[in-house]
Amino acid sequence: MILIVRGSEPAGREKKRDARTNEAIAAFNRHGAPSKELTSCLEERGDRLTKMALYRAQQKKCAWCERITDFSSSPVDHIRPKNGAWRNLPDQPRVEDPGHYWWLTWTWSNLVFSCVRCNDAGHKANYFPLFAHTKGIPTPTRRPPLVAPLPQTVIDTSAESPLLIDPTAGVDPLDHIEWMPIDERLPPRLWNWEPVEKTPQGAATIAILKFKELADDVTDHVKTRLLPSIEEIDDHLSSERWQAAQARWTQLVEDSLSPTSPLSGPTWHALSRLMPTAKRAKFGLAEPPKPGRR
What we know:
Blueprint: H1 14-31, H2 36-41, H3 48-57, E1 76-78, E2 85-86, E3 96-97, E4 111-113, H4 116-119, H5 152-155, E5 177-181, E6 193-197, H6 200-209, H7 215-238, H8 242-256, H9 264-274, H10 277-283
Antiparallel strand pairs: 1-4, 2-3, 5-6
Helix pairs in contact: 7-8, 7-9
């Protein structure tokens, strides 16, 4: 999971977005939230323009797990859920705000491209917990009838303090979740990697998205995509081929942390472990840049 720069809303999307929002507002004014009539208005209707813009902005990767994802079978996910927000963590009793956040269903800043796994009921689902003793933004009211444009009080989400990391909101997931080898006393070839929380947000995000299920994928990625090059660099260093080592390291960093590379978040952590800061400084190896930053 890395920072995502979503970019501007694609041209031509406004008309469809406003029409769908107005339809939902009318259903809300007649039937309230939650209601089957409003839920029907919120159903996906194949907005290819939105989906393709997100897919390209995210370099064909899932916003959550950062694996390369098929376009046709994968969904657009709502960071703030559209059919009631679950404020609990997965190991806690369900606490639901049933009115949140239907009115943000088509809001560009609330959308990401996701894989099927991360979007399903066993992972992201409708989870959107907040820090204890904080509240979600207020739900719209029906009296007087709600009209567009929506009031700022229900659009401005800056007052919320979410536990789930939003990778599009400028919060770097790499500051909250670190991929680490379970037992560094073993040789690197035997390291198994797992995500470790550095903050409460990191802990909540790992739990909701079940990132520990990705441990085998990350471990295989490190062993097959990184370790052969690291071993080659170490061989250059032991033979005092400094320039060859520096060139190979630079190429490895560029290839494995490029915008299109899968799992670049875990990769960044792995490179920092496999080639520690002191060793990089000693041999003039550049610091790997954090992925997702532009």
